[in-house]
Structures are given as C-alpha cells and as structure tokens.
Write a structure and sequence with these properties.
Blueprint lengths: L13 E5 L3 H7 L4 H22 L3 E8 L7 H24 L3 E5 L7 H13 L7 E8 L1 H18 L9 H5 L12 E4 L18 E4 L9 H12 L9 H5 L1
Length: about 250
C-alpha cells in the first residue's frame, strides 16, 4: 500500500491544494458544472480524513478564488448554496475527527448568510486540536499581499510602525496566513501546471505536485502518493546538495 511508503518522520506540516477539474469531470459524465462541484465535496472529505490520519498539521484548500466571482451568476449562486450545505453537513464529522476549520480570504465579499455559517463552523470547531483545515475563500495571492501592504501603510502613517522595522517577519504577520507555516507541498489536480494566484508569497519554497486526476476523483490515496513523491525530493533552499547532507 502507498501509505506504507511514507516516512512518518518526514510528513509535511502544511499541504496546500488547488482543487481543479470539477467542471471537466461533470462534462465527461454528461452533467452540468454544478454536479461536478457537488461531487468534489467527496474528495474534500477523503483528503481531510487522509491528512489527519498521517499527521499533516495544516491543509489549505483553494475553494473559491477572487476570480471565481466572474463566473456565470447561476454557477456562483449554486456554489454559495453548496458551500453552506457542505459546511452544515460536515461540522459533526469535523468535530468527530478533531479537525479545526479556519478561513482565509475576503470573507466580507460573501453574502451575509454564507458569512454567518462560516463563522459558526469556525466557532464550533475552535476547540479541536488535530488537523487545521483552512479554506481559501474569495482569496487570491495578490489580494493577500495588497491587503498586507495597506495594513502596513496605515501603521506607518499613524506612527505605529517605523519603516526600519519592516522585514519579512513583519510583512508575514500581516498576511491572512499569519501564524500558519508556509506550505511545504502544493498539489494541483486536473493536469494544469500553474498556481493561479494562490499563496504567492507563501509558496516561495514549496514543492509542486501536478496530477492529471480531476478533483472529484482525487482521494486520500492520491494524497499519500503526492506526499511519498515529496519525500523523495531533496529540498536545498538555495544551498548545495553537499551542504544539505553534511
């Protein structure tokens, strides 16, 4: 079994996933795009379970980008309903598996009823101490960087922050992922080989894993394959192989 190939002492703390291929999966099965999105919920459930089983601490799922607002209104509305339904149905399962849910992104852009359900889910799972499930909603890497710059500019203007005190650590503390380690592994499904404006600052040293599997078909066994592949790589962070091995 693929899980037997995984080294338990080298599990990435943080895995990020670009969940792609719902629409194409639906077309292949003769259904509309919304059907594909609904089937994608099963994939989420499976990899959340798998990540918790092998000890991943943080799992970030790119669920809805700022660019997704430009999709047809009917699809966006359906996605809002699906998001709320999925959250309500999964709360008991998340609590049973000791999963804490968190959200990053411009949450204020969502309808009020969606915001309410998100906040309820965050509160209802806040005492859990296992896997941190982070949903990136109405999120983009450029938005994240820009809102951090605005916060820092405001502090500079008001005198709460001095220019000579700004460094990488200070900047990172203003990102939506403040306090969350950068992902060591970024997975993208559906065969696309791009990052689509996701965690642009945070993935500076992430390992990328691209798979042709469409998201609704992705399961925890596929997550384990990605992690096994990650563990076979040498991560040098700008150093030489000799320096890493010494």
């Amino acid at each position: 079994m693929i899980i037997d190939q995984i080294k338990t002492k080298c599990i990435p703390r943080h895995v990020a996933v670009i969940m792609d291929g719902n629409g194409r999966w639906a077309e292949l099965h003769g259904n509309d795009r919304i059907y594909g999105h609904r089937q994608g919920v099963d994939a989420v459930r499976s990899i959340v379970e798998g990540a918790g089983e092998i000890g991943v601490e943080y799992l970030t799922l790119y669920a809805f980008s700022t660019e997704n607002w430009d999709r047809p209104k009917e699809e966006v509305n359906a996605l809002m309903s699906l998001l709320v339904d999925a959250i309500v149905k999964e709360i008991d399962n998340l609590n049973e598996k000791n999963v804490r849910m968190r959200v990053i992104g411009n949450i204020g852009s969502f309808p009020e009823y969606v915001q309410t359900k998100l906040m309820e889910a965050i509160e209802n799972t806040s005492d859990n101490t296992g896997l941190n499930l982070i949903l990136a909603l109405s999120y983009s890497g450029r938005w994240d960087i820009l809102q951090a710059v605005k916060q820092i500019a405001d502090k500079l203007t008001s005198g709460r922050l001095q220019e000579n005190k700004i460094n990488e650590s200070v900047f990172m503390s203003h990102l939506s992922t403040a306090g969350i380690p950068d992902p060591e592994l970024l997975i993208r499904t559906s065969g696309e080989n791009r990052i689509s404006n996701f965690l642009l600052w945070q993935i500076a040293y992430s390992e990328f894993y691209f798979t042709p599997i469409l998201w609704p078909d992705f399961r925890k066994e596929n997550l384990f394959e990605a992690i096994a592949d990650f563990q076979r790589r040498e991560r040098r962070f700008g150093k030489t192989s000799e320096q890493i091995r010494s």
